[in-house]
Amino acid sequence: MRSRFNLYITEYAINSLLRQRYKTLFIFFILSALVFLLSSLFFITNSIKHELNSTVDSLPEITIQKIKAGRQDEIGVEVVDEILQMSGVQSAVARVWGYYYFENAGVNFTLVGIDEYEEQYKESLNSISQKLDFESSVMMLGEGVKRVMKKSYYKEYFNFIKPEGTMKRVYIGASFEGDTELESNDVIVMSKKNIREIFGIDETKATDIVAKVANPNEIATIASKIKLLYPDARVITKDDLKISYQNIFDYKSGVFLALFIVSLFTFFIIIYDKASGLSSEEKREIGILKALGWRIDDVLKERFYEGFIVSFFSYITGIILALFFVYILKAPLMQNIFIGYSQLKTSFTLPFVLDWQSMALIFFLSVPVYIAATIVPAYRSATLEVDEVIR
């Protein structure tokens, strides 16, 4: 096969595809749909993984929760002083937070309390504490919460229902952006005093305690010491959280794997059908070309151009549609396969993460395989004598 690009053979290949326009359009549609499906799934999984890892990385190294009757219970704030006395612990903070169900929209808000002069356990809370008015009942909202409240016509204040059934009015302040949208989208930040009043948490109690460790190599040792000191507590390290998130994600990835296998199976059925042989019309065309003086490498080159044009443009179309579907339309329906809680979680935007490895994998599973399926049967016919092919 001559290596240089032949414009006339390319023109013939394009005309050949146009002559079989319905067949070409059908293959183009099927290949584009398969590339779109696989690319969308890869883009969604990579974006969610990126969000989860970023969220866990922004958390403190150790979280201590008190367990009572198999459920998380409030923990005494005096535990903070005892943990701070441990060697290697950089800081410890008693967190006051909880979930509040907003029935009108069918979503859960995460209410987080902070104090003005305490060290914040996350960088994003530092900037919020500088803007929050701790002297009055004001809250700052994540972008998702702001959208939900706006739809429900809450523009100035919101009345939280306390455990005893009375109302707690909190005025709506500015919105904020966290380190990740997954982390901050459903979050409401206000003073610990207001959070305690809304959830009925005593001054001597907290939801849990988080601790920062200066040396990452000492995290496991310090976690063991805390566990020995408080046998009734659940001690969770950052690595435990990552494993927990990964297990949940792997479980949901089973759905992705099923779709992946179905897509590949469908694709290879098409490839098998195409590689099994040429139609009598296609064989006769090859015979006529050889009778006109075309060599075997010319026939193969023409078939290569046909396969490349169809598969490459199908690949590009599928990738562009997947990018538009995932990052512009926010992957409706498909996103919920992995995120879940569609009725309890405010929606968020997937971060743009372009995974070249996934795109390369889809490329090599589609374009070269389809080109090979186009060339192999053409080679069988091109190597026969002219009269045998035409007959």
Automatic annotation (TrEMBL):
It comes from the Bacteria. One of its GO terms (cellular component) is plasma membrane protein complex. Keywords: Cell membrane, Membrane, Transmembrane, Transmembrane helix. It is found in: Cell membrane. The chain crosses the membrane at residues 25-44, 254-272, 308-329, 350-371. One of its GO terms (biological process) is lipoprotein localization to outer membrane. Residues 259-385 form the ABC3 transporter permease C-terminal domain. It is a multi-pass membrane protein. It holds the Pfam family FtsX. Belongs to the ABC-4 integral membrane protein family. LolC/E subfamily. This is FtsX-like permease family protein. It comes from Sulfurimonas crateris.
